[in-house]
Amino acid sequence: MAKKTHIKVRLVPEEKPDSPFFYYVKKPAGGEKAKVKLKARKYNPSTRKHEIFVEIIIFISELSILSSSDLILLSFFRFCGDIYIFG
Q1: Tens digit of each residue's pLDDT (9 = 90 or more) over 73-86
Q2: How many CA atoms does the CB half-sphere of 72 hold within 13 Å?
């Protein structure tokens, strides 16, 4: 099976990461651009303004095996801009 060339990332508002609105975008899985954290100025309908949206990486396959305490930690680390998976 071939390697994935892109990964799916979630863009959330920088000012309010727990906002009900977010964007999904594709990001390269390898190379120089993969190391750069995405930032984009997008429209947020909940605040009716253009805001800076920052990247949060989604690990869909790993979220299904997490316990409830790990999911609480994920919601805490979501405010930092990254999701860390603890083993």
Answers
A1: 555 555 454 544 44
A2: 3
